[in-house]
Amino acid sequence: MKKVILGILVVVLLSACSPTSSVPAAMETKPAVENTPEVVEQPTLEPTMESAAEGFTVVDALGREVTFTTPPTRIVVTGKALFMVLDAVYTFPQASERIVAIGNATQGSSNFISLIDPKYEEKTILPQDAGAEQIAASQPDLVILKSSVAETLGKPLEELNIPVVYIDFETPEQYERDLTILGKIFQAEARAQEVNKYFKNNVEEIQNTLSSVTEKPSVLMLYYSNKDGAVAFNVPPLEWMQTQIVELAGGTPVWADANPAKGWTKVTLEQVAAWDADNIYIIAYTANPVEVVEQLKQDPQWQSLRAVQENKLFAFPGDLYSWDQPDTRWALGLDWLAANLHPEQFPDFDASRKATEFYQTLYNLDENFVKENIQPTFRGVLP
Question: Domains along the chain?
Answer without folding.
Answer: 56-197 (3.40.50.1980), 214-377 (3.40.50.1980)
